C-alpha cells in the first residue's frame, strides 16, 4: 500500500508569525505521528539581521510560547516588564506610574528584540532539521485547480509546489493580493503618522527601579508621542511617533517609504525631547540601528482565499497600530490557531475557514481598542486634544491610587497569577493553546 502524501505547507515570511507557525506545526507532528506533514519556510531577506525592532509580548503571546517550551529562553534574552509610566512631555510631569505584576493570567509581559525571538524560534526549528530558505522573494501563485495544489513562483523564477500557502510576509504582504484578488483596494490604510525606532546600547547609571520599566511620553503640541521599552542590560527600544507632513493620508493612500534624509530629520527632532532619564538624545545617540516607517492599519474580514488553501497570518492579515502592543501577540495567536486548524482529528480537519472564523472578530476588536487608545494619545483634532487633556487630568488625580492598586495587583499576580480589572485584560487572558 502506498503511503498517503504529506500535507505540504509553504510559509512565506520568517518573522514571529511565520516561525511560530512553523514550530507549532512541527511540534504537533511530533505529538501526533499520523499528522503527515512537510513544512517549508522561505523569506525574501538575504540574512537574519538585528534591525532595530523590538516589542513587548503579553500573556496571550507568552503563554503559547511557554507551551512550546520557550519560556526559559524568552526570560534569558528578553526583559520582564516591571512597570509602565506615562508622562506629559511638555510639562515633564508623570501622570501615571503603574507597577506590573511579574505574571498575569499565567503568562509574562516580556520586552524582546525581534531578532532575539527569531533566533529562539529558529534554533528550535533547526532541531527538526529544517531551516529557512533565504533570498526567496514571493512573486505569484498559480493554482492547479484539478489537483487542488498551488505553485509559488519567486522573483528568481524558481518555484515550489504546496497544498497550503501561508502569507506571513508582513505589512506590505504580496500574498494578500492573491487572497483578496477580487477586492479592488487591498492596501493597508496609511494613518498619516510615521514612526522612527531604534535600539540603544546600555544606558549607564540607571537606578535599579528602571530595569524593566517602560515610559510613554505624550507631546500635546500635536507633534506626537515617544517612548522606551527596557531591554536586558539597560538597553532601550525607543520609538517616536510623529505626523507625516508630506505624504497624504486616508484610504487608498499608498504606504510611504522614507529616505535616509527623512530618517535623519526625525532623529534630530527626537534628540530635542525630554525623557525621564534626562534627555532623549542620550538614548538616541547610543543607537546604531534605527529605521523609519509608516503607521498603517486595516481590518480584512477575509484572510483565506476563496479556494481555502492560501491563508494570511500576522501583519499580512491584520496590520495594526502599535498603541496597545498587540501586533506580534496577535501573530502568535494566529500561528497557533492555524496549526490547530490543520491538524486532523479522527480523520476530520477543521480547516482554514475555521481559522478565519476564530481570528477575524478577535483581531477586529483588538484593532478597535488600539484605535481608541491611539486617538486618545495622538489625535490631532480639537475633540481629541480636549479628550486627551481631560484624560491626563483624570489620570493625575487618580495616579496615587493607581500606583497603590498596581502594588496590590503585583501581589495578586505573584500569588495567583490572576490579575483582574485592567481595561485590556480581555486581550491578555485569551487562553490560546496548541492542541498537543
Ligand atoms: C513602533 C512599533 C512598536 C510595536 N510594539 C509592539 C508590541 O509592543 N507588541 C506587539 O505585540 N507588537 C508590536 N508591534 C507590532 C509587531 O512588530 C508586528 O506586528 C510583528 O512584528 C509582525 O510580525 P510578522 O511576522 O507578521 O511580520 P514581519 O516581522 O514583518 O515579518 C515578515 C517577513 O516576511 C518577509 N517578506 C516580506 N515580503 C516577502 C516576500 N515577497 N517574499 C518572501 N518573504 C517576504 C520579510 O523579509 C519578513 O522577514 C510594534 C510595531 C511597531 C511599528
Automatic annotation (TrEMBL):
Q: The organism sits in which domain of life? A: Eukaryota
Q: What is this protein called?
A: FAD-binding domain-containing protein
**InterPro entries per the UniProt record, alphabetical:** FAD-bd, FAD-dep_Monooxygenase_BioMet, FAD/NAD-bd_sf
Pfam families given for it?
FAD_binding_3 (PF01494)
Ranges for the FAD-binding domain?
Answer: 8-343
Task: Indicate yes or no for the key word tRNA processing.
Answer: no
Task: Give one GO molecular function term.
Answer: monooxygenase activity
Residues annotated as transmembrane = 6-26
Q: Does the keyword Transmembrane apply?
A: yes
- SUPFAM superfamilies hit by this protein: FAD/NAD(P)-binding domain (SSF51905)
**Which family is this protein grouped under?**
Belongs to the paxM FAD-dependent monooxygenase family.
Q: Where is this region: Disordered?
A: 404-425
Which key words are in the record? FAD, Flavoprotein, Membrane, Monooxygenase, Oxidoreductase, Transmembrane, Transmembrane helix
Amino acid at each position: 500500500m502506498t503511503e498517503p502524501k504529506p500535507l505540504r505547507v509553504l510559509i512565506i515570511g520568517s518573522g514571529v508569525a511565520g516561525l511560530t507557525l512553523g514550530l507549532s506545526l512541527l511540534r504537533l507532528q511530533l505529538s501526533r505521528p499520523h499528522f503527515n506533514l512537510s513544512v517549508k519556510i522561505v523569506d525574501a531577506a538575504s540574512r537574519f539581521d538585528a534591525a532595530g525592532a523590538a516589542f513587548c509580548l503579553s500573556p496571550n503571546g507568552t503563554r503559547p510560547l511557554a507551551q512550546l517550551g520557550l519560556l526559559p529562553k524568552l526570560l534569558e534574552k528578553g526583559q520582564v516588564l516591571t512597570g509602565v509610566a506615562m508622562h506629559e512631555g511638555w510639562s515633564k510631569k508623570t501622570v501615571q506610574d503603574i507597577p506590573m505584576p511579574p505574571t498575569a493570567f499565567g503568562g509574562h509581559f516580556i520586552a524582546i528584540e525581534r531578532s532575539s525571538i527569531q533566533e529562539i524560534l529558529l534554533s528550535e526549528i533547526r532541531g527538526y532539521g529544517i531551516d529557512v530558505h533565504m533570498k526567496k522573494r514571493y512573486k505569484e501563485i498559480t493554482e492547479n485547480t484539478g489537483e487542488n495544489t498551488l505553485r509559488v513562483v519567486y522573483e528568481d523564477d524558481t518555484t515550489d509546489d504546496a497544498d497550503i500557502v501561508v502569507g506571513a510576509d508582513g505589512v506590505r504582504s504580496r500574498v494578500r493580493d492573491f487572497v483578496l484578488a477580487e477586492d479592488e483596494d487591498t492596501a493597508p490604510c496609511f494613518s498619516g503618522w510615521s514612526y522612527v525606532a531604534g535600539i540603544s546600547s546600555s544606558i549607564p547609571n540607571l537606578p535599579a527601579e528602571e530595569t524593566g520599566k517602560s515610559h510613554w511620553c505624550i507631546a500635546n503640541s500635536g507633534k506626537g508621542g515617544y517612548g522606551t521599552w527596557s531591554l536586558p542590560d539597560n538597553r532601550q527600544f525607543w520609538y517616536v511617533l510623529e505626523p507625516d507632513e508630506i505624504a497624504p493620508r486616508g484610504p487608498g493612500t499608498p504606504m510611504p517609504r522614507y529616505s535616509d534624509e527623512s530618517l535623519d530629520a526625525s532623529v534630530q527632532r527626537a534628540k530635542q525631547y525630554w525623557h525621564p532619564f534626562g534627555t532623549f538624545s542620550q538614548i538616541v545617540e547610543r543607537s546604531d540601528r534605527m529605521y523609519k516607517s509608516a503607521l498603517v492599519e486595516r481590518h480584512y474580514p477575509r484572510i483565506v482565499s476563496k479556494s481555502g488553501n492560501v491563508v494570511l497570518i500576522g501583519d499580512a492579515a491584520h496590520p495594526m497600530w502599535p498603541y496597545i502592543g498587540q501586533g506580534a501577540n496577535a501573530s502568535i495567536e494566529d500561528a497557533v490557531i492555524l496549526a490547530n486548524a490543520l491538524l486532523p482529528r479522527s480523520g476530520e480537519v477543521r480547516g482554514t475557514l475555521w481559522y478565519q472564523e476564530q481570528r477575524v472578530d478577535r483581531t477586529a476588536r483588538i484593532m478597535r481598542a488600539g484605535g481608541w487608545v491611539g486617538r486618545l494619545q495622538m489625535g490631532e483634532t480639537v475633540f481629541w486634544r480636549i479628550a486627551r487633556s481631560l484624560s491626563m487630568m483624570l489620570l493625575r488625580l487618580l495616579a496615587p491610587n493607581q500606583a497603590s492598586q498596581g502594588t496590590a495587583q503585583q501581589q495578586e499576580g505573584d500569588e495567583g497569577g490572576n490579575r483582574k480589572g485592567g481595561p485590556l485584560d480581555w486581550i491578555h487572558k485569551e487562553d490560546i493553546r496548541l492542541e498537543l
